[in-house]
Design a protein that fits this description.
Layout: E1 12-14, H1 16-38, H2 44-62, E2 69-71, H3 77-87, H4 106-130, H5 136-155, H6 159-162
Helix pairs in contact: 1-2, 1-5, 2-4, 3-4, 4-5
């Protein structure tokens, strides 16, 4: 009789490029939720709950609490939150925090920041849906640009560093 051993997959190293892909994947998940609501296979409340779970999962990942990946970014966890509070205080607005969350808790602040990311995604999708010149290529271009913008924010790149 042989003993079965489970092999644990090596965690993904989450650098800037992988983060951008992760953010883009989150956007496609949100679009999928919206489609499910439109197709009536998911309620609006279920989609909102799924989107919020996405924000919490992204925050846990950036806190370096996701066993499936390791953060290879300049900052993670509390140091990332501190940098975001200095460089992009509007993204750390307490209005984005979960109810009854401690605004001094880095994890809660990061959940709020990830919710701000989702709000930017909703705004983008709604704006694109209003455009008469909408094409799948436009959606691809605009979502990639937003993912890059947020990835740069999480990596700590400023606009002047990008130009």
């Amino acid at each position: 009789m042989t003993e079965k051993t489970e092999t644990k997959a090596e965690p993904l190293m989450l650098g800037a490029d992988e983060l951008e892909k992760l953010l883009l994947s989150c956007m496609w998940d949100i679009l999928s939720h919206m489609r499910s609501v439109a197709m009536k296979t998911m309620t609006g409340d279920e989609a909102a709950e799924a989107d919020d779970a996405l924000a919490r999962h992204l925050a846990r990942t950036l806190m370096d609490e996701n066993d499936a990946c390791r953060i290879a970014l300049p900052k993670k966890g509390a140091a990332l939150v501190e940098m975001l509070q200095k460089q992009a205080p509007e993204k750390c607005d307490p209005a984005h925090l979960p109810k009854d969350a401690d605004p001094n808790n880095p994890r809660a602040v990061l959940v709020g920041v990830c919710r701000a990311f989702l709000q930017d995604v909703y705004r983008l999708i709604n704006a694109l849906g209003q455009r008469e010149d909408f094409t799948p290529e436009l959606l691809k271009t605009e979502t990639e640009a937003l993912a890059a913008q947020w990835s740069n924010l999480f990596v700590g790149r400023t606009r002047s560093e990008l130009n």
